[in-house]
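thread: overnight batch results

M.L. [08:02]
morning all. the overnight job finished for the chain we discussed friday. pasting input first so we're all looking at the same thing
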Amino acid sequence: GVHLSWRAGASTGTAKLSGVHIYRATGNDPLTPFATLGLVDTYTDTTTVNGTRYVYAVSVFSVDGESSQSNSLSVVATGPFLPGLFHFTPLSVSKSHSHFSSPCVKA
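M.L. [08:03]
and the structure it wrote out:
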């Protein structure tokens, strides 16, 4: 499995955040919507397959709309998700009206 974590700003403009969209691609395919979440800062993708390359990006949304996607991060699933056994890869993205600071993905 792949465990994602991030920190987002408080709003996308004048409205408070409503939630997070996670985008995912497999191999060289384009990113597509994968999950819509509430106001959380972590997500574990338990649908990964060992040895498969995944690419992830996140965005936040509110009644004002959706931020642009974070930079993408590529990982190769190496086995089932095991809490406490993480490989950290940092992501840093600033977007207008939304700021992702020190997000990371754990694989």
